[in-house]
Write a structure and sequence with these properties.
- By secondary structure, the chain is α/β, with parallel strands linked by helices.
- The chain is 26% helix and 21% strand.
- A six-stranded mixed beta sheet has the order 4-5-1-6-7-8, sandwiched between helices. The chain has a two-stranded antiparallel ribbon with strand order 2-3.
- Helix 1 packs across helix 5.
- It is globular and about 45 Å long.
- The termini are far apart.
Length: 206
């Protein structure tokens, strides 16, 4: 669209405006390895058109990015995904999806800044890529929950078996989800909020 010769600069769409009742905003990051569904989750649950920074994958990534289980994937996030969801009339979540490839992890520093909590998306076909992700969150003191994204061709395990395999402590919630479904993704976010609330109660003075 050409705006030359016009003094009018297009603003946000009406549907993108924050509710006038909103008085609290929380930053949440969605992290995980390459191809686990972070962009999909942000897109499925966001009430606004999500901002994505996906670029077409090229030959440069061959031998560098581990795309096992995502061989048909043709685009990848190179900076971040951004979306928004109103949990109540007063509470709004800002969602930031991180890039999955290790060579882009340096961008995580800024994305973690000010985050209240995180969702770690896990693919049962590649559990090993989750360890470094969780280690980084623990090093930064960012509370997180684990969401197991159920891919059709992924092996299915009981959640407690996955807890053991991922070496998760008993206090960290782990849930199954389908990142393509808005309701399922929203349930994951609600699990995180309940977890954050319980942590806040533990720290509250008696």
């Amino acid at each position: 669209m050409d705006f030359k010769g016009s003094d009018t600069i297009p603003g946000p769409r009406t549907e993108d405006h924050l509710p006038q009742t909103a008085d609290a905003a929380v930053k949440i990051v969605i992290v995980g390895g390459f191809g686990v569904g972070k962009t999909t989750m942000v897109g499925s649950v966001s009430e606004i058109k999500p901002l994505t920074t996906e670029e077409t994958m090229t030959q440069a990534g061959i031998g560098v990015d581990d795309n096992y289980g995502s061989e048909t994937k043709t685009a990848t996030t190179v900076a971040m995904d951004f979306g928004r969801i109103s949990i109540t009339d007063q509470l709004v979540l800002y969602l930031f999806g991180t890039p999955g490839q290790e060579r882009f992890w340096f961008l995580w520093n800024g994305l973690f800044e000010g985050a209240l909590g995180a969702v770690v998306l896990v693919d049962t076909r590649r559990l090993e890529v989750s360890f470094d992700v969780m280690d980084r969150l623990e090093e930064r003191g960012v509370p997180f929950v684990v969401a197991v994204n159920t891919f059709p061709d992924g092996p299915r395990h009981h959640l407690e078996e996955l807890r053991t395999a991922l070496d998760l402590s008993e206090d960290i919630p782990i849930v199954e989800c389908d990142a393509r479904r808005r309701a399922s993704s929203r349930d994951v976010l609600m699990t995180l909020l309940r977890f954050l609330h319980s942590l806040a109660l533990e720290k509250a003075p008696v």
